[in-house]
Amino acid sequence: MRKAAVVLLFALLAGACSDPPRRPAFEDARALADAAAAATTSGGSAKFGTDVAVGAVRSKGQGQARFGAGGTAQVMTTDFLGEPAELRLVAGKLYAKVPEGSRDEVGTGKPWVVVAADGTDPFSQVLGTGLTQLAAQNDPAHTLGEIRAAGTIVAAERTSLGGVAAEHYRVELDLARLGTDLPAGLPADAAGRVGGKFPVELWLDEVHRPLQIVLDLSPILQGSEARITTRYSEWGVPVDVQPPPAGEVG
């Protein structure tokens, strides 16, 4: 009995002297966004996959991206158009590969077109806003900028994601403070029409690079599923991100 009591006493003392669990690194949304943005840039490149379910918009995509001080370049395939499509964002220009059966309608007859939210060409007028929002959503810097400008951390924990040690943050974004800089699938006048707030969940690895970002827009589009999930992997993997050949762009 005496020996058991001594063992128990030592166990209790060891537990009392052990270090408490480490807390997540950030309690302020701006500090969180700044650190993750810097880690994204230093990470250099990554592969990504995205799932969009916002209102009537349903799509899946995958691609690879290069990050740097000059901005993000990416290539991706997506079914955002209802059929497989390819997007390339290079040097600030977004290129979309036009489905072969639609090239005459676009008017160029060429496989690629430059897409802009305010473009006057037929392709941009129909799909420009959605595609530019989608491309922006694949870029961690875009969401991190939203968190920095309009976010408040409401919960944080140390956990794991897919077997990788991670910090998990739940951030509340104030839609009114975002203006017209909105996630993919939301119309440009959404901020003025609905107001309110919505949650963003962010998982970072041990050096603060994004592993997963989930935007839950259900509070805005009530009555329908409204989530955008983007996953990042293979940080530092070599990527090949080039614009289409000039002669193939209409």
UniProtKB/TrEMBL annotation:
Residues 1-18 form the signal peptide. InterPro entries: LolA/LolB/LppX. Keywords: Signal. The keyword Signal applies. This is Lipoprotein LprG. It comes from Amycolatopsis plumensis.
